[in-house]
From TrEMBL:
InterPro entries: Sterol_Uptake_Regulator. Residues 48-57 have a biased composition (Polar residues). This is Zn(2)-C6 fungal-type domain-containing protein. GO terms for molecular function: DNA-binding transcription activator activity, RNA polymerase II-specific. PANTHER family: STEROL UPTAKE CONTROL PROTEIN 2 (PTHR47784:SF5). Residues 36-57 are annotated as: Disordered. Signal peptide: none annotated.
Length: 386
């Protein structure tokens, strides 16, 4: 996020910086003074695992809503009693099928998170309701290829409306809407993958970076209202995202492929800020790689652990990706291996919304990496097979 230069007085809202306005992303500088707590700020960045350790609550105490589900329901704008059967079908499909698929942890609390509580909260927050319907539509498109175009149009419509409302609400996050905002941020991850056709390699800025920027909103909400989220129905999800086991890297094969990125991406010509951004991104990728490898050895799902990495990326690293700097692109290529590993569960069931994405991202990367850097794509290419 670029630094805004406008002067402001007491009780005035910060201006929105030009870069964030151009990218159509939430500008955390526009929050009231002292409210910004986005990832990457500070000496080492606000990593998600640090946020969920509980220390963040000491810095930014959160107002906990008395009862989330006593808030007023949304009011229908329909002037007749005609039913929208398509939307009813989408809601039924989400509650009975998609919600159970999203519950990576098979405990009753994890299943109720999406099947019961998120749906109920959706009736009180328009953006979350639209996100639920969008995810359901894209899942039906995956299940019924013969009707893919039809469901994709429906899903894209709900997704667009939900995103607009989400971005308008995010600058006003508080103790009454933070749960819905964070739940929608999680659905953004699903929509980021499910809404792409993956027909051919495309520019990463339009397909990947836009969603990476939006995911920063999840960490902003988490950092500002950790205690309220941690003590709510979202606890199983946050516990799973925060779970880190200290394990020696040498235990797992291919770890050296991640550690050698420190040498590949280290150049004396880099400015200190870029060098630090690469270093932090590789450290975070190594930590994610170890956790994913550990889960794979146990035969457990790795999707949620894999998605922790893009949430933790610093603003500077995202800028380097947007500039198509070779070092940043090579790091992203190695992350594609983790996406590929998450495509298939231990029971050989496909994770529907990321099927084919690893190969698609790697093909897009090959199109833009300079010839001198192509050799550093050999390991990701060897790991991501047909």
């Amino acid at each position: 996020m670029a630094v805004a230069s406008a002067r402001y007085g007491c009780n005035e809202q910060h201006p929105t910086c030009n870069n964030c306005e151009r990218r159509q992303i939430f500008c955390d500088f526009s929050l009231s003074p002292g409210a910004s707590n986005s990832p990457g700020n500070g000496e080492h960045g606000q990593q998600l695992e640090r946020s969920t350790s509980g220390s963040i609550s000491q810095r930014t105490p959160s107002q906990v809503a008395a009862d989330l589900f006593k808030q007023p329901d949304l009011v229908s704008t329909k002037s007749t009693t005609d039913l929208d059967v398509t939307d009813l079908r989408l809601m039924h499909h989400f509650s009975s099928v998609v919600a159970l698929d999203l519950a990576n942890d098979r405990t009753p609390e994890a299943r109720a998170l999406w099947q019961v509580h998120a749906v109920e909260l959706g009736f009180k927050h328009h953006f979350l309701l639209r996100g639920i319907l969008a995810v359901s539509a894209f899942h039906l498109a995956f299940l019924h290829p013969e009707r893919m175009a039809e469901y994709a149009v429906i899903g894209s419509s709900h997704q667009s409306i939900g995103l607009n409302d989400f971005q308008a609400t995010l600058p006003h996050v508080n103790g009454t809407n933070c749960h819905a905002l964070f739940a929608f941020s999680c659905l953004i991850i699903v929509l980021a993958f499910a809404s792409s056709t993956k027909a051919k390699a495309r520019d990463l800025n339009s397909e990947v970076l836009h969603w990476f920027y939006l995911l920063r909103g999840a960490n902003i909400v988490l950092n500002m209202h950790f205690e309220a989220l941690r003590s709510s129905f979202l606890k199983p999800l946050l516990d799973e995202m925060a779970h880190i086991e200290n394990t020696a890297a040498y235990r797992f094969p291919h770890t050296e492929q991640i550690t050698k990125l420190f040498r590949i991406c280290n150049s004396k010509e880099q400015d200190p800020e870029s060098a630090q951004a690469y270093d932090l991104a590789i450290h975070s990728l190594l930590s994610t790689f170890i956790q994913v490898s550990l889960l794979r050895d146990r035969g457990e799902g790795t999707v949620l652990a894999t998605f922790v990495w893009p949430i933790n990326l610093s603003p500077r690293f995202l800028d380097l990706l947007e500039e198509k700097q070779p070092e940043a692109i090579i790091i992203l290529a190695h992350y594609c291996v983790l996406i590929y590993w998450s495509e298939t569960t231990d029971s050989n069931e496909k994770t529907w919304f990321i099927v084919g994405w690893a190969k698609y991202m790697l093909e897009s990367i090959r199109e833009i990496v300079p010839e001198a850097w192509q050799e550093h794509l050999e390991w990701p290419q060897a790991m991501i097979v047909e």
